[in-house]
Design goal:
The chain has helices at residues 28-55, 90-102, 182-190, 204-211, 214-222, 275-283, 286-289, 297-300; strands at residues 5-12, 60-62, 105-115, 118-126, 132-137, 143-144, 148-149, 164-165, 170-173, 195-200, 225-230, 232-234, 242-244, 248-250, 256-259, 266-273. It is of the alpha/beta class. Helix 1 packs parallel to helix 2 (90-102). The radius of gyration is 19 Å and the shape is globular.
Length: 303
């Protein structure tokens, strides 16, 4: 069987412009202006990094969670509702131009506006021709103290676990906190995922010991590649923790095959041989041997 190699890419990046700490004396117009400047700066940074990825031959590229904003769930503040935008919308329309220019599949996680008072943490999947294939919304929404107050901002996802057939491979976003739940990761495999992307924002004290355990475990259990992305740096004005980067690809054996640094803006790339998926699934026949008729308690036992 002929190898089918896909060049994968991950972008990890630090925030550019720190938002104001105190908004009590700012008008709505001033708040909106500040947010737009932050988004423009992050979009410009990702434009340059995407160009770099194209120069490295990347065919499928994934950005970090909420890529064009700081990780604002570090605080409770309604100002960030103004940062949400529809899909398609200005940010995704711009990223779609990059995808078409470079014949590159791009997964772009953003803060989605659905309607007044309803917002989602969403990843848009754009094909290599610039067409929006669809979206995945974050299914599991954390509320962890300190600094991860997502239930204040995001409604739990409504897309379930879609897989997208792109020009190069079948891909599936699985956003940040979702990675702690193996149930959805298995469904993505059953839906035919070849690469699961986990765009994240996670800090050193909270999750570092899990970062290189859970995603490789999903890769092994489901026989697919995983691209795990984390932002870098300490974000002002909150300083709730250090985002430690370390973005990586692992193969269906759970082996990390490429990894970024802990503190630098970076494009992490890896050659992903899709034939490894079928070799591993034939060796470890987990899909053949699973017993779904015996798993009813997973959905019946609700604490």
């Amino acid at each position: 069987m002929t190898d089918r190699i896909v060049k994968g890419g991950l972008i990890q990046a630090s925030n550019v412009i720190a938002p104001a700490e105190d908004t009590s004396k700012m008008s709505k117009k001033e708040i909106q202006s500040e947010i737009e400047k932050i988004k423009e700066a992050m979009l410009e940074k990702h434009k340059k990094l995407t160009e770099k990825a194209a120069g490295l031959g990347v065919q499928i590229l994934c950005y970090q969670e909420l890529f064009n904003l700081p990780y604002f769930p570090a605080e409770h503040n309604q100002r960030w509702y103004a940062a949400a935008e529809p899909i398609p919308g200005p940010t995704i329309d711009e990223v779609a131009k990059w995808a078409k220019k470079y014949s590159m599949v791009i997964i772009a996680p953003v803060y989605e506006y659905a309607m007044d008072g309803v917002f989602y943490n969403t990843a848009a999947v754009i094909d290599a021709d610039g067409k929006l294939l669809g979206i995945t919304t974050k299914m599991h929404i954390p509320y962890v103290h300190p600094g991860f107050y997502e239930k204040f901002y995001f409604k739990p996802g409504n897309t379930d676990y879609p897989v997208f057939k792109t020009a190069y491979a079948k891909v599936a976003p699985y956003i940040c906190y979702d990675r702690h739940f193996p149930d959805g990761a298995r469904i993505l495999g059953l839906h035919g995922a070849e690469i699961m992307f986990n765009p994240s924002a996670t800090t050193a004290g909270l999750s570092r010991h899990l970062w290189e355990l859970e995603q490789p475990a999903h890769a092994v259990a489901n026989g697919y590649f995983v691209g795990a992305i984390n932002r870098v740096g300490t974000e002002n004005p909150w300083n709730t923790g250090r985002f430690y980067g370390s973005s990586y690809f692992c193969n269906p054996k759970g082996k990390i095959i490429a990894q970024g640094s802990e503190d630098k803006d970076e494009v992490v790339t890896a050659d992903l041989n899709m034939e490894e998926i079928y070799e591993i699934r034939n060796t470890w026949a987990f899909y053949r041997d699973r017993r779904p008729e015996t798993y009813g308690d997973i959905t019946k036992l609700i604490p």
